[in-house]
Amino acid sequence: MKEDAVLLGHTRSLVGILTDPGEAANDTNLPAVILLNAGIVHRVGPHRLYVKIARSLAAMGFTVLRFDFSGVGDSRARHDNLPFERSTISEAQDAMNYLAAERGIGRFVLAGLCSGADVSLKTACCDPRVVGAILINAQGDQLDTGDALRSYLLNRRKARYYWKSALFRPKMWLRAVRGEAAFRDIMRVLLFPLLSRVARKKKALSGPSQYAAGLRFVAERGMPLLLVFSDGDTGLDYLHEVFGDELRQLCSSGKIGFHVIPHSDHLFTLLDDKERLLRLMRDWAHGCFVNVQPGAEDDGLLHAQRPSIGGRVAGGGKPA
Amino acid sequence: MVPFYFGGPDRPLYGCYHEPRPGPGRGCGVVLCPPLWHEYIYSHRAYRQLAARLGQAGFPVLRFDYFGSGDSGGDDDQGEIPQCLTDISTAVSEMRRRSGFARVCLVGLRFGGTLSMMSGAERGDLEGLVLWDPVVDGRVYLRQTRTVHEERLGRSLAKLKHGIRNGTNLEILGFPLTRSIAADIEHIDLLAIRRKPANNTLVIESDAEGDQGGLREHLERTAARVEYQQIHAPRIWLPDREGGLLVPNQILQAVVSWMSRVQP
Predict the structure, then answer these.
(1) Is the Cβ–Cβ distance between B160 and B154 less than 8 Å?
(2) What count of Cα atoms within 13 Å lies in the side-chain half-sphere of residue A203?
(3) CATH for A2-143+208-303?
(4) Considering the entire predicted model, what is its pTM?
(5) Would you give the end-to-end CA distance of chain B in angstroms?
(6) Contact A271 B176 (CB under 8 A)
(7) For chain B, which domains are there?
(8) B50-107: per-residue pLDDT in tens?
(9) Per residue in A183-198, pLDDT tens?
(10) Where do the structural domains in chain A lie, given as residue ranges?
(11) How far off is chain B from A253, nearest CA to CA, in Å?
(12) Of A44, A47, A165, the CB nearest to B156
């Protein structure tokens, strides 16, 4: 395995680390893996998670590139006023172009945590070179939904915090005894799970969810997809709200892996949780791509209707 | 800015070299020594900004990651304090090779400051040293990081009953705390260093709960020219509630101004 610092993009302003598998590269048909920034944390990832992922997958034979979007980490900021949601897709495509030119690889798996997961999905929807995606704690387009749903998700998170953590902490009770806690608010949050079942109508999407459309698109396309969530993540709540019972049907195709790592935080900070996440990724990547003929994962591509998500379409097409 | 690896195939270190702006040079390079663990992640943005500003002021700058951290080679559990000091020396040599300047200054935040001062005292050839909220006492530092770990994760994880203990091992916010590095850190006390770490030293204290007064007096006794600045700013080495990465403009400006004064 060998790591190199590389510059990519139109103006070579994006900084990345390319992990070549070296002697581990037995299967030359493997797609390359590209790791997309988790928020504004630079390419090593939260608590160096992306470095571990890159080396772990490279040890299986994958070529892995982790890089910084413009304005993040070591990459220079853009000056073309392209909005973030478009520039990230464009730069993910720049990374694919780089690997195609430098390593002759034409198939890619995109992976990321939080916003990195969201960019992975959006890019997969507009670029057929993406043959797989690993979405870790994807948040989807919940910030674009109506106030009622956002408020519902926030209250649900607070209720979980009280029921699973705060109620069992002596410090919290000490504050209550001292009169420092807002009892009315706490009672409202504690009763929230019950009340929300009674008043389900409050949480409605304000419009069609592009996130849902994107997931349906890649599912119909038959693209291997791994969805991993930490227990109680807002993104998991949102996924359930968006899909409801349809989620089970989506996952039943066999190409979508869906896993919740119990008692983990949003960043999978504890070492055991990080190891569980890595194991899931390795197993999924092995099952989908190692010793699998290229193209087998693209069967549904021609039959799926592309959702309207920004980005250049490889091969000269336009977003529908 | 040039990203590259240096330091040999057995111990590859990631570095970013920032060229100085064109014009009359300062004749002195600056090496930025990062903090450890989560503090490295959260301060990365500020370090990059500082490097860019020093470059604009005419200094060539090298940022780098210790072995076993960031993009450098090695696993999380391979970081060792003596090796971090070796890595700083390797980075100083790399700076001299790239810039052609013999004179070098070090800048370090938190444990990066601690390692910079230890390195400077050991080497005895540094022109300048910026200690930005350095960790003075290793035991206090371990206690603080343990508290941050428990507070941060205790909020979301009911299972965090054993604090930083993970089976027989210890961990700090996603990084393994090996017994050897914990033992090394416990023995660190900057007030026990007798040799002058650099010709000129700037101590910046931004943490209201910090106590760098003792360090300032101690440094003055080593015959170093010492300047002390108290600049109140958020603790950028810790995550804020919104997950933002803060860049303390006033502190970066103070570092660049001081560096420009002592290395005209």
Answers:
(1) yes
(2) 23
(3) 3.40.50.1820
(4) 0.88
(5) 23
(6) yes
(7) 2-135+193-262 (3.40.50.1820)
(8) 999 999 999 999 999 999 999 999 999 998 999 999 999 999 999 999 999 999 999 9
(9) 667 777 677 666 666 5
(10) 2-143+208-303, 147-202
(11) 33
(12) A165
